[in-house]
Amino acid sequence: MDTLHYAPEPQITVLDTGGQYCHLIARKVRDLGVYSEVRPSEPPAAQIASRKGIIISGGPNSVYEEGSPTVDAGIFSSGPAVLGVCYGQQLMARLLGGVVEKGEKGEFGLALLDLEAPSLLFEGVANHRQVWMSHRDAVRALPDGFRILARTSTCAFAAMGHRDGRLYGVQFHPEVVHTHQGKEILSNFLFRVCGCRKDWNPKHRAPLIEEKIRDAAGGRKVFFFVSGGVDSTVAFTLCLRALGPERARGMYVDTGLMREGETEFVRDIFRGDAASFAVLDAQERFLGALAGVRDPEEKRRIIGEEFVRVQEEALESGHLRDEGWILGQGTIYPDTIESGGTVKAAVIKTHHNRVPGILRLMQAGRIVEPLSSLYKDEVREVGRELGLPAELLDRHPFPGPGLAVRCLCAASAEPVSQTAEGWLLPVRSVGVQGDSRSYARVLCIDRFPSPEANLQQAATELINTLSGVNRVVARVGGKVPISGMQVAETSLSAERLGRLRRADAIVRRLSQKSGFDRTVWQFPVILIPLGRPGTPDSVVLRPVDSVDGMTAQSVAMPEVLLSAIGEELLRLEGICGVFYDLTHKPPGTIEWE
Ligand code: XMP
Hints:
Layout: E1 12-16, H1 22-31, E2 36-40, E3 53-56, E4 81-85, H2 87-95, E5 99-101, E6 107-115, E7 129-135, E8 138-141, E9 146-151, E10 159-162, E11 167-170, H3 182-193, H4 206-217, E12 221-225, H5 230-243, E13 248-254, H6 262-269, E14 277-281, H7 283-290, H8 296-317, E15 325-328, H9 343-353, H10 356-363, E16 367-368, H11 376-385, H12 390-393, E17 414-415, E18 417-418, E19 423-433, E20 436-445, H13 455-465, E21 469-478, E22 486-487, H14 494-514, E23 525-528, E24 530-531, E25 537-541, E26 544-546, E27 552-554, H15 559-570, E28 575-581
Parallel strand pairs: 1-2, 1-3, 3-4, 4-11, 12-13, 12-15, 13-14, 15-16, 20-21, 25-28
Antiparallel strand pairs: 5-8, 6-7, 6-9, 9-10, 10-11, 17-22, 18-19, 19-20, 21-28, 22-24, 23-25, 26-27
The structure holds xanthosine-5'-monophosphate (XMP).
């Protein structure tokens, strides 16, 4: 069932061939004022023939591999102008009769673009501008009717164009910031090549969305589960404004797995509408279901199922039995699309937003999703317009299963062991190596991770050379030397969750006070069962920079701040050591479980 769309007909369709950049392309197009959508790569050409333009995204496959994503070749002659980016260019070349070959060593990083021939795509773009490349395969021979528009010192076909001026391909990524005039190139494609008109501005959208909510609700009332995250808070606030407090009700489920002060934080946001907002204390239920559990996936499963049960009970027993009520959700645009690059995001979100009870309501036309056309940045823009506090809108992402997946457990006691490279900690964490997830040990190097030491590079090299290790940490400080630490048998308990909650609160307070939190994308704090009797646990700091969580870089922290955090954490009850995660993603994941 389609949820309501609060947006114009798209002028641009981005075809997703599995790259992590497809949403970035669509967002950049919207930033230029043109409404765009993302679709899996293979809709029949006729379905998107009314668009002004089509952009084929980059992707990780090779065009000549069996089963790799493709497009309906009819799109090249069905009307819209087409731009192929990276894999998209290769696909266009191959489908139109050109040749694509495996590159010898590929090209990753920055290059200078030499413009070869005048074209609408590069109008106003200076020669020798920096572009960002990330490809192994490359076009080797052009299809009929095409010519080279630009090259780099290592890529002869950095850009190509058809003589009719409707088909273009670029090997580099115009959507990333490292391509210096990427915005001009995309803008040329939209306005000069496709003839798009500006029809999109996320500012001042609130009144329009509110009107649509009133239409969708008819005379009915709306019930919401509010998580404290940006999306559900903005969506519920829109409903409150659209329908008034009499016709909108929000419920926050306190799982006991939230950060310190979270319940109060959410309550405070809705203090003006206290009668429309309720907190359901479900801590005992969740902690009871998790008692004694160690395995990360088991934790996720239990939390997911418990949440579904709480949600369905609330739906069954409360308002939703009555036809006079519908359910509101904070689902945003990327979560509504099944596409190669966003499979994981979809899986993470769907178990809460698409449980059977909710699917039944969708089929009955009893769901309203006011943000289903918007990207996160656009949701923040709407939130600002609604006057929601920056403290909420600029929050870091926080995983649904909460602190439970940041509180590591161990099935048996084990000592640390020394190797030539450092100390092997008998703690297993999740990583991504190749296409699959790995579950391996952590190497600790006994050096202070000051920014000058630049240990991240050393960590990458260590992981590449050592087998059985997918993560490297540095030691910030400890009550005993690493040699005196061991992993003890542990499971998830209220005591350890409390310890983690206090540690996380200290890190957040100091990181916010110093402004460091605004320089990172996410900052997980993890509790590991490494210590000694009396102080059985250690804390790991994991600040990362990222665009969308698919890849991430471990970032260095100013030494003064790190020392202050380390000292305060070591004064906490039960904490024996403090470590700093130096691992990029890949090979490590952002979270440890
Ligand atoms: P990883 O650890 O896979 O995380 O690098 C990528 C992003 O996803 C978040 N994450 C989750 N979010 N439920 C969620 O709602 C989960 O089970 C979950 N696991 C990871 C993580 O915080 C990061 O932003």
